[in-house]
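Session log. Operator J.P. requested a structure for one protein chain; no other inputs attached. Running the standard single-chain path with token output.
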Amino acid sequence: MDRPQLAEFLRTRREALQPEDVGLSRGPRRRTPGLRREEVAQLAGMSTDYLNRLEQQRGPQPSVQMLAAIARALHLDLDERDHLFRLAGHPAPDRVGASDHISPGLLRIVDRLHDTPAQVITELGEVLLQTEPARALLGELTGREGMSRSTVHRWFTEPESRRIYPADDHEMRGRIFTAELRTAYARLGRDSAAGAIVADLLRVSPEFATVWAAHDVADKHPRSKRFAHDGVGEVTLECQTLLDTDTNQRLLVFTARPGTEDAEKLALLRVLGTQRMSV
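Structure written below.
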């Protein structure tokens, strides 16, 4: 671990970012060049003291999970992320196959969607990043580990995960999630994470085995989605999808037609989400 170089790299990248670059307000009396340490710490989900120690060359060796969070908070590209890992004494993550690293361009888009339900997912349905309205609509989905990170795995192994959709849509959703998994399986191969999910679901879920045997294939969800929310009831939203061709990650953005009851429910959902965060 190269403490002096790591400290300097973190400081220079922090000072190179402006609040507007990460969706933060500048404020009237701002004198700090770039981002404050507490702002980066908040974005990375770490304590300000921990970041202070890293920049002062006296912190412990960061874990790979912490480095990934720092790379995301600082909007590092892949070369910068790899450099960060090496300075901290870890090998750079493998770039082959699925990656949890979100491109700076995609992060900038999400930063400007703070009042809209939006999330970044992998082709296996692993949620990497959510806006607060997305958490209010769909629940917190970024903190999971192992195969439960995958939407399709949760669908067939955790019945409570289906509550966000009306019961009438459950059969359709199961077919769609399975078809998307098959597309990923065909692209990534049997020895990939997609292959491991398929093998595990075939072992534990007869329902999945039946749907899998149908050999349905689909590249994307239907644009219109119905959700069942405890606070606002049933709401129908349009889902726009942006594909990052470098990472095969998708940005999903949920909107409602202006002037409709669904738009009113979405506005209420934002308020409910803010109140929940305050509590």
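Operator note: Residues 3-87 form a domain with the 434 Repressor (Amino-terminal Domain) fold (CATH 1.10.260.40).
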